[in-house]
Amino acid sequence: MNPLLKNSLRATLVAALTTGAVLTAGYAPAAAEAPGSLISAQAEPAGWHGLDRGSSIEYWMTDSAGVTRPASGAMFLPEGQAPATGWPIVAYDHGSSGSAPGCGGQADPENAPLPMHRALEDRLIGRFVEQGFAVVTPDYLGLGRFDTGPHPYLEVRSEATATIDLVRAARAAEPGLSRTWSAAGTSQGGHAALSAAHVQAEYAPELDFRGTVAIDAASDVEKILPFMSPDLPGLPGSTSFVVSILAGLRATRPELDIDSYLTPRGQEIVATAGTQCLDEIVAATKGITSADLLVRSLAPLRAPLAAYMMLPTSGYDAPILLAMNVTDTIVPSPLHAALVAQLALNGVDQQVVPGTGPHGSLSAEQLGAIDAFLARVNAAPPQR
């Protein structure tokens, strides 16, 4: 058995038999495994993720096929007692971290790859906590304590349900949380936050959603991938991200026979990527070209890729703030511009705050705009 799964199952059993392992006294995991139900919530020592009041959470979520799966994440609380109406929630979705258990870095930060990247995100989480928000942050399906197969990288539906079901589970664990919540995220996390924003009204109507902050959100990649073929001199964008997308699609849509698009070397790279964190995937794909990876064009995957990962550009019922770096080389500025144009065409309530830093970075102006946005959308009294 995978060691992470073994440890998690042991922790779940302990949580079911004792009250000390969970935040809510007397709580036992729900037998029905309803989406958003709590498995366990463990208070962590001061300094965990650089914050004082953090807890790791295990919970049930639904995957894109509607199957209930276990997942993990983290929760952070402000100092002091909750206000009478509860702490409003920010659900923060992290950036790309890989495809294997333990890569998410939220429930188990000591095992996470890319420590410098995680430290930047932890500081942003800390900023939200200092402003009086409770913050929850999911590992995403397959990236935490449970080995549920390769993480479906950039899959809109499971990103959304991982986020929303953690909000539900955190409220079951901590009675001081409000019904009021907002979504935020960076890179893949921006994609996840927008995905959650789009489905929250039908998926979790019992909650009170206020708005979305998306920082250099991944978008429109599904429009580029179908043009890939062995004849291209190189891959559009980063090879590691393309391989991660193919690994996720291979795991969730076996009927597409992704291996039939790949060379023997490509099959090995994609299959192995499903067991690796991002730093390992980057190392394994260094110098890999389209010809090394593919035996035929990805054009037949146009519709499946769109269904799997395309961000909706209409149908949002709460405002959106997009912090976008025009000098971004991971999600190039034409893709950022395409997202803004599509949202504008469909009359979506959006605010765009440009920057000139590297991917995922935030200028003082962008940070100030995010602070003001969250204050504004949460100005109405929070609800319990």
TrEMBL record:
It comes from the Bacteria. PANTHER family: LIPASE 5 (PTHR34853:SF1), PTHR34853. Pfam families: LIP. Residues 1-30 form the signal peptide. Keywords: Signal. This is Lipase family protein. The keyword Signal applies.
